[in-house]
Design a protein that fits this description.
The structure holds 3 protein chains of 3 kinds.
Chain A lengths: L3 H28 L19 H6 L1 H33 L6 H13 L2 H14 L6 H26 L2 H9 L4 H29 L3 H6 L6 H11 L3 H26 L9
Chain B lengths: L3 H17 L1 H30 L3 E2 L6 E2 L5 H8 L1 H35 L2 H12 L6 H12 L4 H8 L11 H25 L3 H9 L4 H30 L2 H6 L7 H8 L7 H24 L2 H4 L1
Antiparallel strand pairs in B: 1-2
Helix pairs in contact in B: 2-13, 4-8, 4-10, 8-10, 9-10, 10-13, 12-13
Chain C lengths: L1 H18 L13 E2 L8 E6 L6 H11 L2 E6 L3 H9 L8 E4 L1 H9 L3 E4 L21 E2 L2 E2 L2 E7 L1 E5 L22 E4 L5 H11 L13 H14 L3 E5 L2 H9 L5 E4 L1 H9 L4 E4 L5 E11 L5 H12 L1 H11 L2 E2 L4 H8 L3 H4 L6 H5 L1 E3 L17 H12 L1
Parallel strand pairs in C: 1-5, 2-3, 2-4, 10-11, 10-12, 14-16
Antiparallel strand pairs in C: 4-14, 5-14, 6-7, 8-14, 8-15, 9-12, 9-13
Classes of the chains: A mainly alpha, B mainly alpha, C alpha/beta.
């Protein structure tokens, strides 16, 4: 199809982009083995001594657990609310539909610092103490749109005749949902949920304004970067998390075949 | 709703009512998510915006509720603050354009040239950086771009002059492009992948050469994807304050940094910070309206 | 129809109730002064600088008192003040406020007074740190001093010669593009301190109490410095990287950076220039709405003991306020007591101008000084 020269050019471009995306990752991994706690180039002394303390760091473990909890709960909220919105809007045509989808995009489209400050003043106004739930609310707010877009796209491609047939055969609404609709959108939910989780797991700016005394992992990382006394430990943690995520990301990828930042279709 | 059979009965009756009145179903589905957004988020945004028109008492640093435009006057009368706004918008635009230019051929390759297997590997490679900490990735760039860093070291090895772009606006532009690139690649890919092959063949049959087909068929159809990606790259850059802190130099202050340093909740001058924060709000508002028109929301 | 509507409204209400978090139950009135310690509460949450609550001394504390420690690190004094007030206060029991934050917390009514008699080691503190103006107002102690450090002049010994003796070096065009100073509004005081010695006409006596003309002169100096600056560093590790990787050769610093760089064999030295130096003095302050005030006092007692004072001083690279810490410091790291001036005479401490929050009311009945919000706005404009 494309001319040979074009194809070769595209290949080279693709390789360069992949390098661009991954050279910093290589740097991160290299500095996990740096003997010095200062990042200088080239690395002169190598060590694995940061791995032990990094893994056994109690604060890191607490932060990781909080991040997993917050990410999981935020994803759950986003899945419920996002797919509800998607079902509500997918086939409906009414005035204000655009406004509503606009509403969901807002938290992602507006700078994080604004979202963070708005939520912070909201919670302060209601004398809500900051903690896991305020983090979850903040994260869910910007994760809804991701699930919403994934599911809307899938629903548009699922013929209405399927649900109608189910109803005609005597299934009630819930049964139809359970046995027809849910299987049809399940992969959209998986990939949307995974991406929502990834965003929540790495969020810094909104979290700064909505977290309480407990740190999430990114906040722990930021704290450790400030003084940098045990800087390589941060690299170790990031490296290990990367290793741990390769497997689920690959599986999800195989499961859904394709993925988009906001949707998988 | 006493017994289970009654419950089941009620459920069926409810289902029937809902089935007969689709608007009811729509409303029931929409109220929770829309209520969430309106109550938690939009209300808070509105409250924030209201602050911008208030001031603070210099002695107690408590907010004074008198309506005025002093904060905005202070912002626009200061050359330094105008500079910050201009720099932020300009760099966000440059980052967006660069991301689009880098992402398009890559996404095109993924969507139309790569075999399914290669495509999947590329997907994982694009998504993987999102799973390693944003902070640590930005931090890694410091050691790449520093005077005695990886970049200059490599340039020296191959006999080229040093680049010396560490701690500058160029460094910020580069790092922002790096950080947000996946957010451009994926929507562009989604748009390209959806172009039916028949369109391209039709264009060829009608005598369109490669470039003509690209310009007249593929680019217009991919545009909503590019715009959708640009919403991310533009707004994420617009609102960031951590990357400027880490890799920026002197004179790399962003809108987010000013908001952060002047406002920070109740510590400082919240009304002033709110006024400053309303600038990206307005900029993004305009941008979103324009994006909406180009149909980017369908391509998100 | 009506029934369905009601039910539908109910569903909506439940959904809304799920979204809107229940309003927190704030205790009606706070604690205004702490004069005795009671039964510990089993928990303690604090905001501190990175490195102020290391496991090294937190673990024995938890063992001894049973107070489980919850720590949050803040990135700036502004962040500390915000965190102390967030959620209506009461989120945190303690904060390690630096001088540029402490007055804001005191005047903002956020912190309680603490009777120094509760802290046995208080009597061993250097006089200067028993009732410093940044935490003691009208004889009332809003917290207990912790550690202090000077803001020093750091330079690369290979690239900067002759060795600088004056703060003038960081305003010298000779080092264009190689200078780094902290990104902190309180930095205006450093410029004011330099001007107080080099431009007597301005009549600056206290770098934190500046009238409009004095303030403008300091800002003008900083604006002139701006093109020379490579980076206004935000994190201590930023400055370390700048010196390590050759991006900066001279700048304003803390002893921590010097120690870390020297440990990595980077050729750097620091000094207190002839004009003197500003410095920070940190204070553990207890929130008026503290949920665990007794644990908070136990913590203050614990970190005031010579051993913890020495441990923290060595970890962070700062100086204890407890004169008895000197011996332990030398035991942990030979010569460190003298290196950190932990045994210096009182006169030495008086030469350091400790941070305090600039307020409009700067004494003598004058209310014409530039307050902190003006400092922030001006500083933001200088660096941007």
């Amino acid at each position: 199809m494309e001319r040979r020269a074009t194809r070769v050019g595209l290949w080279i471009w693709t390789v360069l982009v992949v390098l661009f995306l991954h050279i910093p990752i290589v740097i991160i991994v290299l500095y996990a083995f740096n003997a010095s706690n200062i990042q200088g180039w080239p690395i002169t002394d190598w060590t694995t001594r940061w791995f032990g303390p990094a893994i056994h760091d109690g604060e890191m473990q607490d932060a990781l657990i909080l991040s997993l909890k917050a990410g999981g709960l935020a994803t759950l909220f986003a899945l419920v609310l996002g797919s509800a919105a998607a079902f509500g809007l997918a086939r409906a045509r009414f005035f204000g539909r655009n406004a509503i989808s606009f509403l969901f995009v807002l938290p992602i489209a507006l700078p994080g610092i604004i979202t963070g400050m708005a939520l912070n003043s909201f919670f302060t106004f209601w004398h809500q103490s900051f903690g896991l739930w305020t983090i979850v609310v903040g994260h869910a707010t910007f994760c809804i749109v991701i699930v919403f877009n994934n599911v809307v796209a899938r629903l548009r491609r699922t013929p209405t005749s399927l649900t109608e047939a189910s109803m005609d055969l005597g299934a009630d609404g819930l049964q139809t949902f359970r046995y027809v609709t849910l299987p049809a959108i399940s992969t959209a939910l998986v990939s949307g949920g995974l991406l929502a989780f990834a965003l929540s797991f790495d969020e810094v700016i909104v979290t700064t304004f909505t977290a309480g005394a407990d740190n999430t992992l990114p906040i722990w990382i930021f704290g450790n970067i400030r003084l940098g006394q045990e800087l390589p430990e941060v690299n170790v943690v990031v490296f290990l998390i990367l290793l741990l995520t390769i497997v689920p990301v690959t599986i999800a990828q195989r499961l859904t075949r394709e993925s988009g930042i906001l949707r998988t279709e | 709703m006493a017994s289970t059979s009654a419950l089941l009965d009620n459920r069926r009756r409810l289902a029937a009512i809902v089935w007969r009145r689709p608007w009811l179903r729509t409303a029931a589905l929409l109220v929770p998510p829309v209520g969430w957004m309106l109550l938690l988020y939009v209300a808070a945004l509105a409250a924030l915006f209201v602050y911008a028109f208030w001031g603070i008492d210099v002695f107690t640093t408590k907010v004074v509720h008198t309506w005025n435009l002093d904060n905005f006057r202070e912002i626009f009368e200061s050359g330094a603050f105008r500079g910050v706004i201009w720099r932020t918008i300009w760099i966000a635009a440059a980052v967006t354009a660069t991301c689009a230019v880098i992402a398009f051929p890559f996404a095109y390759f993924m969507a139309r040239v790569a075999t399914p297997r290669v495509r999947m590997v590329l997907f994982i490679l694009v998504l993987l950086p999102l799973w390693s900490s944003y902070l640590v990735r930005v931090y890694a760039w410091k050691v790449i771009l520093a005077q005695d860093g990886v970049l200059n070291w490599s340039l020296e090895k191959i006999g080229l002059p040093a680049a010396n772009i560490g701690y500058s606006n160029t460094a910020m532009w580069l790092v922002f492009t790096y950080i947000w690139l996946p957010f451009m690649i994926l929507p562009v890919y989604a748009a390209l992948e959806r172009i039916p092959h028949s369109y391209i063949e039709a264009s060829r049959d009608l005598g369109g050469r490669g470039l003509t087909t690209l310009r007249r068929v593929i680019l217009p159809l991919a545009l909503p994807g590019v715009v959708a990606g640009s919403i991310f790259t533009f707004s994420l850059t617009l609102g960031d304050y951590i990357t400027p802190t880490l890799v920026g130099g002197a004179g790399s202050t962003f809108i987010g940094n000013v908001v952060y340093s002047t406002g920070l909740g109740s510590a400082g001058n919240l009304p002033f910070a709110a006024a400053f924060a309303s600038i990206p709000l307005v900029v993004m508002g305009i941008y979103l309206v324009l994006a909406k028109r180009s149909g980017a929301f369908e391509a998100l | 129809m009506r029934k369905v509507r009601v039910r539908h409204a109910f569903v909506a209400a439940v959904a809304v109730a799920l979204c809107v978090p229940t309003a927190g139950v704030g205790k009606a009135d706070g604690i205004s002064s702490i004069t005795k310690v009671g039964q510990t509460e089993g928990a303690l949450s604090m905001i501190g600088w990175e490195g102020y609550a290391q496991d090294q001394w937190v673990k024995p504390f938890v063992q001894k008192t049973g107070c489980k420690v919850n720590r949050k690190y803040a990135g700036s004094s502004d962040e500390m003040v915000t965190l102390m007030r967030s959620g209506g206060g009461g989120q945190y029991d303690l904060v390690s406020a630096s001088g540029d934050a402490s007055l804001r917390l005191i005047y903002g009514g956020d912190v309680a007074t603490v009777d120094p008699k509760l802290v046995p080691d208080y009597k061993n503190f250097f006089k200067t740190f028993q009732s410093p103006p940044n935490n003691t107002i009208d004889g009332q102690h809003y917290g207990i001093s912790l550690q202090w450090g000077p803001n020093t002049l750091l330079y690369n010994t290979k690239k900067v010669s002759p060795a600088p003796t004056s703060w003038g070096a960081i305003y010298d065009p000779k080092y264009k593009g190689k200078v780094t100073v902290p990104n902190n509004p309180i930095q205006i005081a450093d410029a004011a301190l330099y001007l107080s010695k080099t431009n007597k006409k301005l009549g600056i006596t206290d770098p934190y109490e500046l009238t409009k003309p004095q303030f403008d002169a300091a800002i003008a100096l900083l604006k002139k410095q701006r093109p020379l600056v490579k980076k206004y560093w935000g994190l201590a590790s930023d400055e370390i990287a700048l010196f390590k990787n050759g991006d900066a050769t001279i700048g304003a610093s803390w002893p921590y950076q010097t120690n870390t760089l020297q440990a990595a064999k980077v050729p750097v030295k620091d000094l207190i220039p002839k004009e003197g130096a500003t410095g920070w003095l940190d204070t553990w302050m207890v929130s008026k709405k503290a949920k665990h005030p007794n644990c908070a006092v136990e913590w203050i007692k614990w970190v005031s003991t010579p051993t913890v004072q020495a441990q923290q001083a060595l970890y962070f690279g700062e100086t204890p306020v407890n004169r008895l810490a000197c011996k332990t410091m030398d035991k942990l790291a030979k010569g460190s007591c003298a290196q950190y001036h932990a045994n210096a005479p009182e006169s030495y401490y008086r030469s350091i101008k400790f941070w305090k929050t600039p307020v409009a009311d700067c004494g003598n009945g004058r209310k014409d000084c530039m307050d902190y919000s003006k400092w922030v706005t001006a500083w933001t404009q200088v660096i941007s």
